[in-house]
Amino acid sequence: MKKQPAPYLWGVQAAFLEKPLPLHGDSSINAKIFHSSNPRSRSCSMLFDHIQAAPADPILGLGEAFKAETRAEKVNLGIGVYKDAQGQTPILKSVKEAETRLLAQENTKNYLTIDGVAAYNAATQELLFGAGHEIIAQKRAKTAQSLGGTGALRVAAEFIKRQTNAKNVWISAPTWPNHNAIFNAVGMNIRDYRYYDKQAHGLDWAGLLEDLSQAQAGDVVLLHGCCHNPTGIDPTPEQWDALAKMSAEKGWLPLFDFAYQGFANGLEEDAYGLRAFAKHNPELLVASSYSKNFGMYNERVGAFTIVAADEATANRAFSQVKTIIRTLYSNPASHGGATIATVLQDAQLKAQWIAELDEMRARIKTMRQKFVDTLKECGATQDFDFIVQQNGMFSFSGLTAEQVDRLKDEFAIYAVRSGRINVAGITDSNIRYLCESIVKVL
User: Fold this and answer.
1) Which residue ranges traverse the bilayer (predicted)?
2) Contact predicate 399/413, CB 8 Å
């Protein structure tokens, strides 16, 4: 007798049969559990039944809630994207021109190499360290195009876990929530170091030094290159120098999350901390992103850069980085990286991009001051002047979680419950409503 095919695991095939199949030739066993078109009618439990719904992402979940908001007057200060004076997230003119050129010249959709667009990676190193830096000249840096800054951080975490003896990663408190999630995912021990002084609305320098003095040789210390997320507070150049020397003396492995270069004071100025560490530390890692300073959020353009003591070590380490990338996403997409490389390699386009970046930074600084002034005009007695001293898109407003909840529930104003607000989301058309609402919940 011809052997009957075994029914599919989920009963897809057997559900269409007129008669139940005997299993393994035993006619006494009825295969009705595979015969039902309703999976829930089976006696066996489903493999996914035990899975619990994950909580909404604390930041991206806000965007979903905001889209579902039906009130006409609403303000989104949650997700960290730049918005212009009209409340739009525009495509930069320099980016549009680069894309036009690419479309005219592009002649293939072939795979990229594992590390992505070579010109993009070279331009990234020059932005990070400066053209002609000895790290570049000595070929001690290797860069791989990544899927945004998040992708770069995950590659970094995997590399640290698989290729070093590091067990601990020191992360500022507070920080971007995904930092903890990424390093938890690879099984590293997370240690917090103090960063924000709630009373002074500034950097807790003494607490930071005390906590990081406990970091051991080989521990990873994660640092925000500029525009600290969520506080907007950065170390001074003198403090960066002190941290860089402390790192070299202690033997940390520095990991820079550099997502906002150009949004604090300028491209060169914002790289001060990273370059101070590069001066004193022969090894370091950088996860950088062009989402913000190029406005290319949905192109997922980031980079992971590893710096080693010499070229041979860098090459060996980078071979392991590429192995990791191969198992995660194989290779990156071309369009975003090629667009940025086109801008950064062309003097005219690069100058245009820098001018557009300067304009974005200036608008954010202007809105910081207007925000503080309008709060005063609306009757706020609480001092918000500290907001003007913060850098980048974000401000740690000082609002409590309860006040943030009231803003959402009563006024359709969405912000992160930590009190972080995206200053770039403030416009001339919503600032009065925003400030009047804030005063009502203070």
Assistant:
1) none
2) no
- Give the three-class secondary structure for 310: coil
Of 211, 257, 353, 365, the active-site residue reads 257
353 included as an active-site residue: no
Give CA angle at 383 (382, 385), nearest 5°: 150
Q: Which of 83, 115, 170, 176 is catalytic?
A: 176
Region of residue 45 (phi > 0: left; psi between -120 and 50: alpha; otherwise: beta): beta
pLDDT tens profile 199-216: 999 999 999 999 999 999
Domains of the chain by range and CATH? 1-42 (no CATH), 61-91+358-441 (3.90.1150.10), 111-345 (3.40.640.10)
The catalytically annotated residue of 292, 353, 365, 408 is 292
Active site residue 176: yes
Instruction: Report whether 340 contacts 290 (CB < 8 A).
Output: yes
Whole-model pTM: value is 0.88
Q: If you count them, how many residues does the chain have?
A: 442
Question: Any idea what DSSP says for residue 26?
Answer: B
Residues 284-338: tens digit of each pLDDT:
999 999 999 999 999 999 999 999 999 999 999 999 999 999 999 999 999 999 9
Per-residue model confidence as pLDDT tens digits over 368-417: 999 999 999 999 999 999 999 999 999 999 899 999 999 999 999 999 99
